[in-house]
Amino acid sequence: MALDRTKVGTRYPSYRYEVAREKIHEYALALGETDPRYLSDGDDCVAPPTFAASFTIVKGTAAAFADERLGAHPKLVHGSQTYTYGDRPMRPGDVLVCTPRIADISVRGANEFLTVAVDCRFADDDRAAVCSEMTIVFLGSAPQQADDEPSTQEPA
Amino acid sequence: MTSIEVGDELPAVEATSTLTTSVMYAGASGDLNPLHYDQAFAADVSPTGGIIAHGMYSMGLASRALTAYAGGPEHVLEVSVRFTRPWPLGTSATFGGKVTAIADGVATVSLVGQTEGGDRVLRGTGRIRVRAESG
Description:
The complex is a heterodimer. Chain A is of the alpha+beta class.
C-alpha cells in the first residue's frame, strides 16, 4: 500500500519529554563518550548532540506510524537524519515540547521516502532546543505508476 | 584548543559494533527494534541477513568526533547524515571528517563513517560554531 501523499503538512499532537540526568549518562556511555560533563552529577552536565535521538526517533514517529490513513508499513529503513540545534545544549531537568509533522513524501523507483520533522522547544521559554528531520525509506511500496514522477527518475 | 582551519581533519573515532554496543544503544535511546540484537528476527528482515547496528549509533559516533573537535555540544549547530550501507555486527568502523569551509563564524565539516572492509556506512555534514577569538 502506498503512502497517502495528502498527509504532507499534517501536524500530530505535541508530546513532552523530560531530560533526565541518568539517561544522559546512559546515552553517553553507549557511545563511549569521554567529555566528563556528559557523566557529571553537577550543574555542568549537558547532553551530547545526538541525545535528541532518545525523544525524536521512536516517539517522534509514533503518531505518524499509528495513523492508518498515512499507510506506514514495517518494511522500512532509516534513510537520513538531520538535527539542527538551538542556542544551548540540553541539560538535566529540561522539559521539551515536541511537535511532529509530515514534512514530505516522495517516490524514487519502487521505494517511498517519508520525511518526519519534529520541532522540540524548551517548555519554560519556548526557544528552539532541536529540530529533527528524519527520512524513512519504505521499501517496495511505491505506486506502480506514479503519475507525477517522470520515469527518468527510475534508477538505472 | 587550536584554531579551526579549512582542511583540518577531525581526530577519528573508531568502534566495533557488538551485541553489547547494540543492546546498550537500544536501551539508552529507546529504539528497541530487534533488528539490532535478535538474530532470528534479523535473518528475516535485515538487508544483510544478520544483525546490523542502529543507524543512529553510527551517527552518534560521527557526532562524537565532530563535537570533540568543536569543543563541546554548545558549539554544534547541525549534524546531518545519510545512512548509505548497513554496519554489520562484529565489524569495526572509523568515523571522521574534514573542514571544508569557514564563513561567518561557522565551519562546515564533511563527515564519513567507513567499515574496516571499506563500506561507507554514512556520510554527511556538520556545522560548528568557530570560536570568536579564532576569527
